[in-house]
Each structure stands twice: as structure tokens, then as C-alpha cells.
Amino acid sequence: MSDGLAALAVQVRADLAKTAHPGMPWLTPMTAPDGSRALDVLIVGAGQSGLATAFGLQRSQVTNILVLDKADEDCEGPWLTYARMPTLRSPKDYTGPDLDLPSLTYQAWHEAKFGMESWRDLGLIPREYWAAYLSWYRKVLGLPVRNGCEVTDIAPEANGLLRATVSTAHSEEVLYARKIVLATGQEGMGDWSIPEPMRHLPTSRCVTCAAPIDFTALRGKRVAVIGAGASAFDNAGMALEAGAGAVHLLCRRAAIQLVQPYRWLTFRGFLRHFSELDDSWRWRFMRAVLELREGFPQATYDRCARHATFHLHEGAPVEGARETLDGVLLRTPRGEIAVDFVICATGVTMDFAGRPELKRCADNIARWADCYTPPAQEQSPRLGAFPYLSDDYAFCERAVGRTPWISGIHLFAIASTMSFGPSGSSINAMTTAVPKLVHGLTRDLFRADIDRHWAAFQAYDVPQAVIRRAPAAAEGSA
């Protein structure tokens, strides 16, 4: 660690010590059926949202926690895997995992590592720097993370506990927890989608934008990217820079979207209080935001447009696809396009049943379509498939009483968006979203222990002072 980062680590720990009030432990350990100590909170996912949630819990004196991630250390989240943009798109001064602790901000880390002039001259944050910052964040806070662990099943257990089956490369184990947070990012409630006309194509010809792609193998090839959001342009840019012979970006809309709605809604009122609006307002806003999808900045477009081999096709949804002797023929309203390889950057579909950890309850997780009927002009089956969450990010039941234990599972991922707006997976919302999640978790833990708290209060008898009284005068004395 550099001298600057070492000094910053000292500063972080000093700041945490100064802001630790109240510091009294307040949770009573619970014994699991196997005799072990049950976790108070198990967090699934050690990306930025999972780490920030762990930090928020620790600051609330919830320290009996564990964070699991199926990826290797430092490969959590998208930053060093399927994120293919040179820099983050958020402005550099957006705060996030720091939860408003100045010494824990990305800016503090960057200045300590590279100097104040480097921060001053920085435009946007390189994604490799962000990944390095998160790695430092995890270490400097001493967050309890285990890598190479995948949660494959969640089930109810006695005394309100949840039982999580965890698979590793060599074994399987069971963990017990009072609460489970799914901080599982983009694919937390489903999986990356391939549009129906292309689902029959083999993976040698068609993959999602989250798949491992050997872009060097695309040199001289004809590539189609399906989608027109920022990720679509990122993948097109990678193919172009690798020397693809032609890259066709197919946008289903008549005109590509240039407005980024997330820039408008990044203000405290919206981020903090959107989830408190009634269903009609939440639906109206999120339908507008999610139907627009995520826009892209100028640099993202220019990365592709500077190549003569880049071709943008607007009003060109894929209506059919068939393999040929030398590739794939895509049929669109604007004609057929022959390519060698297809990358689908069309987002994530909600498929609760496709998540192994939710197989016991997937059919009883309430969706927005179960809880709210929008006006006819605002109908959207895609948005209706999002999970309908309670005010603490917990799952709700479709049929009340069938799976009451799912109220102990809290979703903090991209699928939380319909209920909470930008929250899980969003840097711009983290300083408001994580405290809201932590508040819900600690509220439930406190309420569940209220009898024990009452008994402890009644038994509390520690005096704060000693009263020295003069001896009583002897009886009968003058």
C-alpha cells in the first residue's frame, strides 16, 4: 500500500471511531439448529451494493454478518468482467459506497493514490480504478467476505431463521441467518435476455453482452449488436477496436434515445422519497424511465462513430434469424443483414423461477402485476413482472400465508427499481438507498427481539452516582 493510502486508512479508522455513537452491542445471539451461532444478516453478493450494505450494518452495530460472492476476489460485479466501457458514466463527484464519510469517498482514495492534481484533471473514473477502489474499501473496513461461494437454496427454518445452502468448488455447507440480503446486481431476479427470434442460435453465433467474449477472434468478422443503450455501444466499440470488419448496431426504435433520465432524477427528494409515493405515481415514473431505457453519453457514441465500419440501423428490430453456411442472416423491417456473430445487449428478463436460490418461493413472490393495475394507456407486461417489494426491500407474498418466511429476504438489486427507483446497483442512489435498507433490517431485528429488550431494560440496575448521606442522629440525643 502506498504511503498516501496507508495514511488514508488511518484517517478512515479515526473517522469511524469518532462517528461510532452509539456503540453498545444490542443484538442477542441466536443458536442455529446445528448448534452454531446464526448470522444476523447474510449478504449474497460482494459487489459495491453488498459491500456498502455490510458497511452500513456495521455502523449500526450489526456485526454478526457475512458477505458471499461466487466470483473470485476482486472480480465481483461487472467492472473487470462484462463492463466494457473505458470509464464509469457517473460524474466523478457522485458519492456512493462511502455513505457520506468523506475519507471513504472515491475522491479521497484517488487523491491519496494519484495526487490532488490527478483528481483535478480527471474527467470520468476509469472502471479499473473503480474496481481497485472497491477492493481497497473492502480491506480498509475489514468487511467479512468469502469468495467462491454460491447460494443455491434458501429455505425456512425454526425460530424465524433462514437456511442457506452454499456451494463452493469442493463442498457444500449450510448457513443460518435471521435476514438475507440479495445484493445480486443486474441478474438478481432473472437472467440476461436474448430476443425470441435469436434464441435458437448456438452460442458460437449468439451471446448476451454479459457473456465472456473473445473480441480478438472477431477481427475481420461481421458483428451485429442488438440494442441501443450504453452497453450496446460499449460492446460495439470493443468489436470495432478489435478490428471487426463491420459492426451493425440494431435499434428497434424509430429514433435512437439521446436523453438520459437518470441524470434528471438524481436529487435527494426523488432518491430518498420515491419509494414512499403511492403505486400509481411509482408506476408512472418508472414506466417512463424504464421504457426510455438508459441513454449513452457523447464519448460512448464517438467511440463507435469514428470507425468507418460502424453502421447504426434505427427502426430495425430483429424479426427473424437463420443460420447460413457462412454465418447468420438477420431479418429486419429495413432488410436483411448478414453477420458472423451476434451480441445481444437487450437487458435482463424477470424470471424468478430461474433463480435456484428462490425455487422454494418463486411462484409466490408478488409482482407488480399482482398488486397494481395501471390505466390502460400505461400498461406494460414487462414492468408488471418486476417484484413488488415492501418498504424494507423485502419480498411480499402473492398468496398471504403460503410462504411468510420470504419477508426475511430483502432484494437490493436492479430488480428493486420498480419499487424504489434507482437503488441496488446504482452509484447515484447509494447514499440514500443503503441507509433505507439498513433501517429496514435493523427495525425488524429490533422488533423481533423486543421481549428480550424489555426484560433487559427491567433488569438494568447500574447506578450512575453514589449518594453519601450523613449518619442519622442517635435516637434521644440533644
Automatic annotation (TrEMBL):
The keyword Oxidoreductase applies. InterPro entries: Auxin_biosynth/cation_transpt, FAD/NAD-bd_sf. It comes from the Bacteria. The keyword DNA damage does not apply. Keywords: Oxidoreductase. PANTHER family: FAD-DEPENDENT URATE HYDROXYLASE (PTHR43539:SF91), FLAVIN-BINDING MONOOXYGENASE-LIKE PROTEIN (AFU_ORTHOLOGUE AFUA_4G09220) (PTHR43539). This is NAD(P)/FAD-dependent oxidoreductase. It comes from Bradyrhizobium agreste. The lineage of its organism: Bacteria, Pseudomonadati, Pseudomonadota, Alphaproteobacteria, Hyphomicrobiales.
